[in-house]
Design goal:
Number of strands: 11
Helix content: 40-55%
Distance between the termini: 28 Å
CATH topology of the domain at 151-255: D-Maltodextrin-Binding Protein, domain 2
CATH architecture of the domain at 151-255: 3-Layer(aba) Sandwich
């Protein structure tokens, strides 16, 4: 927890301990290994090289114990296990329904879910803190194994009262004069938006930066600015016409949802079971849940899937 949060105080809060208790345990561990495990970088507590090595070994040991427990459960004819899943915030608008279907079919498997942006989930994968993650853009530099789940359309949303609303075939260059509500750095949506702007050779002004899709949608509904978002995050608002899709040339971008794990790391039987379920049934679940997008935004139905090439 200290390595995850770079903070003894935040780790203590999540563990429901006092900071001094966490500090004492780390100090005792450092005494046992006779090496410092944490150093300071500004106000953050960062792992030393010895700490990184020990954390990797501990994660492998915990994974081996989990696999042993699942093997014994299978020998007893029990389908149990614990799966740690990561999900980007955009996927929370559909993934819980997929997980509910999985739980109904496999009630003995316990699910532990972490929600974060793409950068945070990649860190959890590397640290061995989650078994796999659902995200849009898979990494290309970690030896990761990515399986496509379903297309994900991304586009620009506005309030119905916005001056661009209702227009057809808006040139991307016109966006340069309109303020955007944007996601934080590290978000896959922010990266996709930046690449779209770069390809269009525009740099629209940014009104405010937010890490919450809900806050972004409310700011757009209030006509504070426009936003580049996954359309799966705003299905109900589009259906209710509190938000509208701007018909910008080249949009929507069609990106894929992926189930991502590190191929170099072992994955438990229960995690494999969930990953297969998400890959095999997630697409149908998403298609049923968002079938109305084809007529709310006709361009979604017309666009070939997928057409958006990912890059690192």
């Amino acid at each position: 927890m200290v390595a995850r949060h770079h903070s003894f105080v935040r780790a203590a809060s999540e563990l429901h301990l006092t900071p001094s208790a966490v500090s004492l345990q780390i100090k005792e561990l450092e005494t046992a290994v006779r090496l410092p495990l944490f150093g300071r970088s500004g106000r953050a507590s960062c792992l030393t090289p010895a700490g990184e090595l020990l954390l990797n070994d501990v994660n492998r040991a915990l994974q081996a114990l989990k696999e042993a427990d699942e093997t014994l459960n299978r020998l007893r004819g029990e389908e149990t296990g614990i799966v740690s899943l990561g999900m980007v915030s955009n996927s929370k608008y559909f993934l819980p329904r997929v997980l509910a279907s999985f739980h109904a079919a496999h009630p003995g498997v316990e699910l532990r879910v972490s929600v974060g942006n793409r950068e945070q989930l990649l860190r959890l994968l590397v640290n061995g803190e989650i078994d796999f993650a659902v995200m849009g853009q898979p990494p290309h530099d970690l030896g990761a194994h990515a399986e496509p789940i379903a297309p994900q359309p991304l586009g620009i949303l506005a309030a119905p009262a916005h001056c661009l609303a209702g227009r057809s075939a808006i040139p991307a260059a016109e966006l340069a004069d309109h303020g955007f509500i944007v996601r934080e750095p590290g978000s896959g949506t922010r990266a996709a938006m930046d690449r779209f702007f770069q390809a269009a050779r525009i740099a629209p002004p940014r009104v405010v930066e937010l890490s919450s899709n809900e806050c972004i949608k409310q700011a757009v509904i209030a006509n504070m600015g426009i936003a580049f978002l996954s359309l799966h995050t705003a299905g109900q608002e589009l259906l209710g016409r509190t938000l509208v899709f701007l018909d910008v040339t080249g949009l929507p971008l069609m990106r894929q949802w992926h189930a991502v794990s590190l191929s170099s790391e072992p994955i438990s039987e229960s995690a494999n079971l969930l990953r297969r379920f998400v890959v095999e049934f997630g697409g149908d679940c998403i298609a049923r849940q968002f079938d109305y997008l084809d007529w709310v935004i006709p361009a979604v139905g017309r666009a070939p899937a997928p057409v958006y090439a990912e890059s690192a």
